[in-house]
Amino acid sequence: MNDLERLLSxxxxxxxxxVRGTDPAxxxxxxxRLRRTHPADLVSAALGQARLRQRAVAKFxxxxxxxxxxxxxxxxxxxxxxVAAYRARRFAxxxxxxxxxxxxxxxxDAIALARAGIRVLAVDRDPVTAATxxxxxxxxxxxxxxxxxxxxVTEVDTAAYDAVFADPARRGGRGRIFDxxxxxxxxxxxxxxxxxxxxxxxxxxxGIPHEAVPGDAEAEWISDGGDVKEAVLWFGTDRPxxxxxxxxxxxxxxxxxxxxxxxxxxxxxxxxxxxGAVIRAHLVAEVAEQVGGGxxxxxxxxxTADELHPTPYAHAYxxxxxxxxxxxxxxALLREREVGVLTVKKRGSAVEPEELRxxxxxxxxxxxxVTVFLTRVAGAPTMLLGHPA
Length: 389
Prior knowledge:
alpha/beta
């Protein structure tokens, strides 16, 4: 708290401007120079904040990250700005004008909600985290829409707000927490809090078991740039009890229709690799129907088809070769075809991609590129070679 207060002072802000963009290799020299005219602990705090801002660019963009304040845990756990903005638009589309943001962290979601024109009560019980959220609201000119309160979220009255957004802590002293009832606060508490308002969204781990999703919630799995970021349980939508996968940028949203599992079929000309959000949402069948395909194996989420049907929900590859798993044969084939760039993907195989690359790539790298899929076809370990379609 003391570090943040001092960084918010005129001297602290001036130091932050001076150390902006400092290369890690130059930190010692910069610190030595600045300590001649500034307190050593303030210089250290400014350089530490500069490092956090550099890390935060990936989530918040350079402009916002350069003005915001962060804690190490805050950078790690904050929602990516693109995901927060998408969720804020969904709230706005529901007609929500005010949200109680419970477990607000450093304020990433509150910022997105405020930018969507929604009034926000942002609550966190940690004093430093709450102070950081307040500083961020002010730094981005959103203090008029965001009230930050340091409090236990379980004691906050949300009756004055249209909706609740809750992001329970999913990390403990030993790392990630996988049991929803071990979240802080537990998922059961968050669900009850959600049901008290007309609308709500609960951010949960993307690995949440489908059986843990309440029957009156809509479950949405979200990926950004191909990386699965989170799952959200929505209350008060027009599709309770359903699932969807949403891919950003876009957004592209694939709703579940309760299709049966696709049938297993022979390897076709094309292989489709569904997005991780599609797989987490158990919507591989919807993708298979879109492309007119089936599964390579009943237990693996690779879809194969005879024709190319572009879809945002899966990457398509044209398959050129099918081989039983054999390292020597693969190495000989890559040498014959002068392959220098090898991408290895796997599902249903214990082989590590990096290890395979080291074993099979020729020392004299060729000009061609190949993607190899290590998988099973009808239960048999198989290598499929191809390239993006």
